[in-house]
Amino acid sequence: MGMLFGGLGGGMWPGHINYGRVEDRPLLTRAKVLRILGYFRPYWRNAALVLLCIATSSLLGLVPPLLVREAIDVAIPRGDGSLLNLLVLGMIVVPLLAGLVGVAQNYLNVQVGQRVMFDLRNQLYQHLQGMSLRFFTATRTGEMMSRLNNDVAGIQGTVTGTMVNVVTNAVTVTSTLVVIFSMDWRLSLLAVGILPLFILPTRRVGRLRHNLSRETHQQQAELSAHMQETLNISGYLLMKVFGRDQYETERFRQRSQTLMDLQVRQSMVGRWFFMTLGLFGAVGPALIYLVGGHLAIQQQLTVGTIVAFVAYLARLYGPVSALANVHVDFMAALALFDRIFHYLDMAPEIVDRPGALHLDRAEGHLRFEGVSFSYGKGAPALEEISFEAQPGQLVALVGPSGAGKTTITYLIPRFYDPTAGAIFLDGHDLRELTLASLRSHIGMVTQEVYLFNATIRENLRYARPDATDADLVAACQAAHIHDFIASLPDGYDTLVGERGYRLSGGEKQRIAIARVILKDPRILILDEATSSLDSESEAHIQAALQPLLRGRTTIAIAHRLSTVLAADLILVLDRGRIVERGTHADLLARGGLYARLYEQQFQRETRRARLAEPWGNGREPGPGDEAATAPAWTDDGDEADPTAQPPGPWRGGPWHGGMA
């Protein structure tokens, strides 16, 4: 949004606000677990079916070792071929059934997991849409993209795999313990006695992987931000113009190297631990064969029982090892949940008040009463701003960079709220109106036009989705851009490219004006769009603005003094205060700051215009030539390009539009 509306003005620098950082939090709390599980609540029926599949699969998994025991202890010693055939058939059918149940479980599990991810991603996107402009000026786009893409995708394994594995392995361990203790309590105690060696080291390993996971995803966000800044059109052009290709490549390589090192460390943490778990998995069966073999020699145990018992050890040690691994992986996944919840827990700065009024129709009567505003620490951006704009009037804002002009325009649609004072629309405090209804009555045309990488038709209908083709044509004709669009091979279906880079600056501006005409707002905020264009483009833009301004309340940031000659009210701002106010004639007659700046720049422009193109017969320009030679007052208070002369049709005041 900051990109859409250009510079922030008022000396804003919200660096004291920390939006992108995740503070250290408890790794695992009851509230956090309940919050995560809350995302599964809408899909509890499918989750219940998953649990049923887990229980069924676990019970079926207990059967094959028992069949093996019967084959060794009964069928083979007795020479019962029929029983042996049935047992072998069972050894094939039972795993097949377990496999089918597993397929159903996986389908249901993926369904639940993907829906949870869908909800989480949408919730995060919608929450970010509700954040204030302050958030977007303090947070890099790449950081937000990383949260939405990398972080949400990173917890997918936790949602679709880890949590189900916890339940599956817990059921498997429990059922296996019941069976092996029913077979022989002595061997069971021996098998269980090894289990603590699987569990004790997991807490430390989990914390290490948690910290590394957080660092890794933070570095991924840094890398995404770097790519977003350098691989878009503006970044590419800047990089090429200044010959910084090698510099940016080296920066990318260094950040990529850091990410690679973190990922290697993350992969290696706990490897020795898990190698030890594998060793225990081999020692356990050996001990069972040792102790069980001696018991079998003493005729206290059958060979079939020993073989079945060892088979069950895989169902015991494997799930316990997996549970230990799940703990480690879950602790690492918590770092991602923390990063996502960190964004979700940010309270939007600008929200509707309870019972806010929906303003269906607006006259456009705008009033500032003692408005002050500060972006944070340091000098306030605005102090005691008071003025009134009647419906249909033009109020022009002039002043040097940092005077507070842009800040005033940001307060009207409530991108920010005043820190003191109030702003009224038709007698209603803006804070008492719903944001949707307030902004529906406001239109903006700025110097830096933003167009989506879509067709001209789609960009126009962004203002009014229900607009007909006839509406689009009428708006574009009013904005003096229809003939150009019609001359394109694809007409209104022409793709404009990223940020409209396939179009010239003047063409983008006229499309933006047509877009606002389609919206038909009662209040128009205008950051003059012609100060940096050539004379021909400027003439087209100025002609396009006439139908847009007619009958609307307009707040205009003026860079060219020639554009405010017919303004109903000119506000001269300096350091956040209104230092002068009045019409152009009044301010010139007063001989104050406005008059001095105007006279100084007018004389400069006159001298340069005379050098570039003599007036004829050595004649000095007279008062009637004022509009044709009026200078441009840039944001820095400097004169404009002397070769860019305002076109003739706008002599006498380009903002007139039939309102005065």
Give the tags.
single chain; Rossmann fold; 4-stranded antiparallel sheet; 8% strand; disordered N terminus
Whole-number mean pLDDT: 77
The CATH architecture of the largest domain would be 3-Layer(aba) Sandwich
Q: What is the CATH superfamily of the largest domain?
A: P-loop containing nucleotide triphosphate hydrolases
The counted number of beta strands is: 10
Largest sheet at a glance?
6 strands, mixed
Oligomer: single chain
The 3D shape can be described as elongated
Describe this structure as you would to a colleague.
There is one protein chain. The chain is of the alpha/beta class. It has two domains: 30-215 and 268-344, ABC transporter type 1, transmembrane domain (ABC transporter transmembrane region fold, Up-down Bundle); 366-650, Rossmann fold. It has helices spanning 30-38, 44-61, 63-78, 81-129, 133-138, 141-154, 156-183, 185-193, 196-199, 202-230, 233-241, 245-268, 271-297, 303-344, 405-411, 435-440, 456-461, 469-478, 482-487, 505-519, 535-549, 584-590, 593-612, 626-629; strands at residues 366-373, 382-389, 394-398, 420-425, 428-429, 442-445, 523-527, 553-557, 569-574, 577-582. Strands 6-7-8-3-9-10 form a six-stranded mixed beta sheet. Strands 2-1-4-5 form a four-stranded antiparallel beta sheet, with helices on one face. The relative contact order is 0.09. The model is unreliable at 1-26 and 614-660 (pLDDT under 50).
